[in-house]
Model the fold of this input.
Amino acid sequence: MFIYVRVVYIVYRTKFIGDFLQKRKFDMLVSTVPDYMSNNIEIPTIQREPKIWTLEQKQDFIDSLYNDYDIPKLYFRIKQNQPDKWILLDGQQRLSTTVEFLNNKFRLGESSTMPAEIRKKLYREISPTHKQRIVGKVLDCIQVECTDDEEEEMFTRLNNGTPLSAAERRNAVRGEFNLSIKSIAKHKFFRNKVNFSSKRYAHDAVSAQLSALYLAGQPIDVKGWTLKELYESKRRYPERRTAESKIKKTLNLMNKIFERKENYMKKYNVLSIYLLLQELTDNYAITTIKPTKFYQFFDNFEAERIRNSQLPEDATTFDRDLNEYQINCVNSPDSENAIRIRRSVLLKKFFLKFQEIPLKDPVRLFSDEQKQAIYIKYNKKCAGVNGFTCPNLGTEMPFENLEFDHILEHNEGGKTSVENGQCLCISCHNHKTASYNSSSRQNR
Ligand SMILES: [Zn+2]
Done:
């Protein structure tokens, strides 16, 4: 079926919730709703619509379409780099009801204001002229460009008309989680070292994000939705003491490392640095690294990131990892994916700088980030083995085709560190293992 799309774009700026929102108005023809629903419109899974329409409400809605009554506007959020993906902020019931009706899922009402011959009919049973009065109607739509926080705020306002911001609403939830967040947000690192104000509970928001990440034990989505859920589900918070002391310990370390308030200590960097240090203190022997060394590492990382962001992508010194980091500070920085990528880039850069750092647990294999660093260290090539001609000598190889090996064997006391790690092609690795096994047999 050919669906013609009548989309009129008018770009303009206006005051709605903030002056900052870029808005775009367009019309959506009712006949095109199913098409948009399957190709463009995304309903955030977390967005639980509290009010699901009854059959009568659904029938009323189609009735309004037929009679050309005013229908409230539909709101979508678009992301700059994905103009074809529209996140629905308001209008779920209107859209799903339209799709259901066009798919003959319910009948028109008995007592509607429609002509008698179409009452109690399914869509497919009514005449083309009547159909046209419904599917030819246009829905007013608004697309906005906004941040995650603004998305949540807008959603709430559209749905409840509440004047509170997302963080303000979270703050209104009483319970132990809230108390714990308040206590973390008072930490001197927030007071003295971060480069964002505590206005509208921003320190609370980041403290809640750190708690959410600690509780999950891995990168997760820490947008407002997730936080709100924690405030509500953890009114009793048995993990509070452990969580709080662990988080504050890492904040103490951050406070020690950063002696001044740095420009780059924005929310996204607080999260990345926290996760890096948490991972390092949990799993690696880092006591030999002085706070000043850490500081130099971060400071240099940030300087490099800014320098890199000004390079054209085809420059020989353009660093894809730094670029990935950069993108994920700007684009949905609180999503699971963005947090995972930032953490991973920082860890990889860290291991390239501090190659001697071993894992605490000697039994553990190289971590992914160590492998990434080793891969870069050997210029994506097989390191080769003495007395054996590598079949892949000098050729760059995909990461997944290489194997990661202790230069000094693990049971000879070799550390699981980037310094003592090399990447080998399968042939070289097999040769090394075979000759090692035969020599250790001879020694017996
Ligand atoms: Zn090889």
Observations:
- The pocket of zinc ion is lined by residues 382, 384, 390, 392, 424-425, 427-428 (CB under 6 Å).
- DSSP finds 17 helices and eight strands in the chain.
- The beta strands are 10-13, 22-29, 41-42, 74-79, 82-90, 138-145, 403-406, 421-424.
- The chain has three domains: 10-160, 166-353, 368-443.
